[in-house]
Amino acid sequence: MRKTNLNKLNAIKKSVIDSCENYGIFNMTTAKIAKNAGVSPATIYLHYHDKKDLLSRLYEEVKSKLQRGVDKVINDNDSIDLQMKKVINFSINQYQKYPKEFNFVQVLWNNKKLLDQKAINFDQQLNPTLIHLFQKIHDSNEYVDAPQEILDVFFSIPLLIVERNHKLGNDRINQVSTMVINAIKK
To answer: What gap in Å lies between CA 157 and CA 155, rounded to an integer?
Structure first.
């Protein structure tokens, strides 16, 4: 049995994320991924069954990385509005730290046919802290009764704005966060 070479595996993962940004998800081939990673195409298949498996596993890994730490910024004693604002600000900070990874997740979130069922199921399992917050929003009479998918879109609006203007100041980010929160109020 072969031993996993973590350097090669990490180079493959980095190559996928870079290739997504440089070539686009539909122009990305395992040959390009391997070339950019400095490995043979066969090396990719030592770790993944096919391109869909590669994208799916990396999607799960990156999404987990981007959500890691959100539970530390939310205080259950804060108002729901403040908790939402903290989640939005956390997401923006993560985007600013990991823009390529955010792009990768966003592209696959919008092209779920490229993911296997396990990754799609994973996508539907939010961090427990976020699940609790969304349940509080749903249970409150203060907010519209919207499905999770719609709330996800509203929460992604500040990220889209920051994506277009990387130098957005905190005042503007807070203004956008407040607008998003007000948009889901009754």
So the answer is: 6
From 173, 183, 175, select the one nearest 91 (Cα to Cα). 173
Between CA 119 and CA 128 the distance in angstroms is 17
Q: Could you tell me the pTM of the whole model? A: 0.86
Give the count of beta carbons closer than 10 Å to the beta carbon of residue 55: 23
- Phi, psi (degrees; rounded to nearest 5) at 112: -65, -15
What does the pLDDT look like over 65-89, one tens digit per residue? 999 999 999 998 999 999 999 999 9
CATH topology of domain 6-61: Arc Repressor Mutant, subunit A (1.10.10)
Judge whether 148 and 156 are in contact, CB under 8 Å.
no
The full length of the chain comes to: 186
